Amino acid sequence: MATREVEERAVHTIKGLLLACPRLDDHLKTADSGPLTDGHIDFHSRDDDRVETFRARVSVQVKGRSFEPGSKPRASFSFQRSHLQGYLSLKGILFFVVDIDSKTKAARPYYAILNPLKLDDHLKSARGDQKNISIRVKPVPSSPEALEDIVALAHKKSDEKPGSVADLSILGESSRFNIHTDGSIRFDGRSLLELDPKRDDYLVTAETDFGEQVVEQAAIKFIPEDWLIGKSLDFAVVAGGVAIEQPFRRRLDEDTVALELNDSLRVLLKRPVGGQQAIKLQFDMSRYLHSRVETLEFVFGMLDQRGFWLGDTFVQQNEAALSDEDGLRAQLEYLQSLAAVFNSIGADTKLIDLEEITDRQYKQLVDLYDPLVSRVEAKADLPGPGRILQPVGKWRIELICFEGSEPGNFKVRHLFDPELMMHFAASVETDEGVKRHLVTPYDAFVDDEHLPYTLNLRLDGMVDYYRKISEYAEITSFATQTVLRLVNSSDQVPERRKEFLGAAMALNDWLIEAGDERAPYVINRLQIVARQRELISEERDLLRAIKHTGDPDELIRTLVAYSCSVLLGDTEEADFVFSRFEPETRSQVKTWPIWTLHDQGLPDHSEKRVTPEWITAWSLTEEGRANSGGAERLK
User: How many CB atoms lie within 10 A of CB 13?
Assistant: First the structure.
């Protein structure tokens, strides 16, 4: 087929496609009009070609190629270097190439938006002596609307300035970005998509206070939520008796999904090939006891049963080898016995940092296995019953030993063992002199400095302990002090904040349920809440009401007003009230948790506010004093 005929058929093919586009008006010449362009396309805002509707003009060149029947489509076109330099001087063109079947004369139209940025990149990437440069072309869509989008994008991209840098100062926080494409970019929201302005046909604009602005050279990376954030699954992953609830699923690439089971263990699942699921286990030795034991138990469970359960589905693994398997199994056995010691006293093994424990402490902990776990009496040369303080890195556990069944034998229990209830008393000064008073071990045996670091407090049973003792002795003042000590502890040791605040709230709610003086307990409850989230308007109104309640005791009245001012964030008022306290009172206040909120300010919470049900139980009586609307509603 003659070259001229091929070129003419190519132009007619493109003109026929443009004829179906109501907003496009082509001015293409059938004869080859020049080395760089064959005419242009006018773009209109409506489906008529009046001057009033004219919006843009795009330079066009059309080339034709013949091909033999049965040959594969050609996805690129080879340009002379000088032609690309010419296109760049024209601020780019819309290029069409049409492949013509040499036998049937059937046409395959392709296009390429040769915008300045793409042209500049190809020219700079080419070797110095390279005369021809190949550029990818794409099939022309059959839809008229899609072809109009291609022409519109070619015009928008003609204003690109190679080498320019985006002025990001024009973008405000509320800027909205628009991505204009030629329709060839597909994003399903599940796959990673990376767009390069030197390669892909798109343009980014931003809606700013200055109008719509083009963001020059904007590379875009669409990362699906499944890749960037991942999500928790609502089932467990199980191996070797270890069930890890709500594993975190994150996609790593098109073929690989990671199940993150804890801070040191994850399973990689590859896309099945030939029906076989490829599994890769990745783990390291966490420094924390709970994670280390959980990881090793899962690993050996997975090896022993050759797979693991993913919900109700068993994922089978081929036989695998583990380096130093014997050594790791021995380590697991040792760590399991160590964990059993902590579990027997209710200590949280997630807090145990193995790297902080000394060799001597390791030996001492192992020696505690028999008396604490197996309840075997220990033999020791001790003068009699007493307390044992066992350090564990920065932490400590409080133990107590009693005489055993034979001389020289001792029973070892942890200090907060519920079985020891009713065994503790403290000396209390009264108007009648010093008297022995029944107390809990929380009241007189662990000082304020060491309370935050004591692992075996068994806070889950603390309220029951106080409730039981209250049947035999007045324990309210002791419990109130424990609430304050727990809140102070939450400020001192952030990793136990949730644990301490939860226990303080439970004990304070019991006091509200059983006590007579309401205002201090409500203030304590709200200072606990203020450490968890921002106070809501109903809670703030309650504080204002309590603040103006007239207590007969002037000091208590002033302390209540001070505490309410702190919780309301009225720093100036709190400073003023605090300055009027006597020096002794100021020193005392500085030991209370309310002082931390005064000195450091209320925490900045970003969580969504919620209306707690408990607030509806409180009202004001006609006398203006805070009153409970039903103790059972405050549980």
Answer: 21
Written as one letter, the residue type at 320 is A
pTM (2 d.p.): 0.66
Residue 548 Cα distances to 558, 559, 624, angstroms? 10, 12, 8
Burial of 256 (0-12, 13-18, 19+ CB in 10 A): middle
**CA–CA separation, 87 and 115 (whole Å):** 8
CB neighbours of 148 closer than 8 A, spacing ≥ 6? Answer: 21, 23, 24, 43
> In what helix (H) or strand (E) does residue 361 lie, and over which residues does it extend?
helix 359-367
Q: How many residues does the chain have?
A: 635
Answer yes or no: do 118 and 12 share one domain.
yes
Same domain assignment for residues 150 and 178: no
Round to the nearest angstrom and report the end-to-end CA distance of the chain.
92
Q: State the residue range of the domain holding 619.
A: 462-634
Same structural domain for residues 14 and 134?
Answer: yes
Q: How many CB atoms lie within 10 A of CB 309?
A: 17
Q: Are 217 and 231 within one domain?
A: no
Predicted confidence at residue 428, as pLDDT, reads 72
Tokens found for residue 629: 């609307």
For residue 327, being part of any structural domain is answered with no
Contact (CB, 8 A) for 635 and 513? yes
Distance CA 589, CA 584 (A): 9
Same-domain check for residues 376 and 509: no
State how far the Cα of 269 lies from the Cα of 247, in Å rounded to an integer: 13
CA distance 528 to 616: 18
Residue 431 lies in a domain: no
**Sheet strands (E) in 449-573:** none
Q: Cα(36)–Cα(93) distance, rounded to whole angstroms?
A: 9
At residue 69, the 3 state secondary structure works out as coil
Tell me the backbone φ, ψ of residue 268, rounded to 5 degrees: -100, 125
d(CA 258, CA 458): 36
Averaged in consecutive runs of 10 residues, what is the pLDDT profile of the chain (635 residues)? 87 94 89 79 82 88 92 91 94 95 93 94 91 94 93 91 69 70 78 82 80 75 74 89 90 84 89 72 92 94 89 82 88 96 96 96 94 88 82 95 85 87 73 77 88 95 91 87 96 96 96 78 95 93 87 86 95 94 94 95 69 42 32 25
How far is it, in rounded angstroms, from Cα 342 to Cα 338?
7
Confirm if 136 and 114 have CB atoms less than 8 A apart: no
One DSSP character per residue, 263-305 reads TTEEEEEEEEETTEEEEEEEE---SBHHHHHHHHHHHHHHHHH
Q: Are residues 317 and 341 in the same domain?
A: no
Is residue 395 domain-resident?
Answer: yes
Q: Which amino acid is at 225?
A: E
Contact 504, 486 (CB under 8 A): yes
Tokens of 423: 């065994």
The count of structural domains within the chain is 5
Report how far residue 260's alpha carbon sits from residue 249's, in angstroms, rounded to the nearest whole number: 6
What is the identity of the amino acid at 238? V
Angle, in degrees to the nearest 10, between helices 593-600 and 554-567: 50
Coil, strand or helix: which one is 623? coil
Which residues, 6+ apart, have CB-to-CB distance to 238 below 8 Å?
Answer: 244, 308, 309
Q: Are residues 133 and 9 in the same domain?
A: yes
* Contacts (Cβ under 8 Å, ≥6 apart) of 628: 512, 518, 617, 618, 634
